[in-house]
Design a protein that fits this description.
3 helices, 87 residues, Methane Monooxygenase Hydroxylase, Chain G, domain 1, elongated, single chain
Length: 87
């Protein structure tokens, strides 16, 4: 357990940041999953709508530092390529 006032504050900040990062990461994964499910079902319009929601959120996730920018770029690229296979 933390003994100093600054260490107590740091623990509290870490809990808040961890909860925020977990929420952001979970939401991003849900959006990615929606794109993949739409592609698997063969629904082109639904997949494109889901992709248009997922891309900005993935960018935002990398901007917040939850995931690395290269990871975000790779996810966006692969999802876009996946949706384009329906064309």
């Amino acid at each position: 357990m933390a003994n100093h006032k600054s260490a107590l504050k740091r623990n509290k900040q870490n809990k808040v940041r961890n909860a925020r990062n977990t929420h952001v990461r979970s939401t991003m994964r849900t959006l990615v999953k929606q794109v993949r499910e739409a592609v698997a079902a063969g629904e082109k319009d639904t997949a494109q709508d889901a992709l248009s929601k997922a891309i900005p959120y993935i960018d935002k996730t990398s901007t917040k530092g939850v995931i690395h920018k290269s990871t975000a770029s790779r996810k966006i690229s692969r999802l876009t390529k996946l949706v384009n296979t329906l064309g």
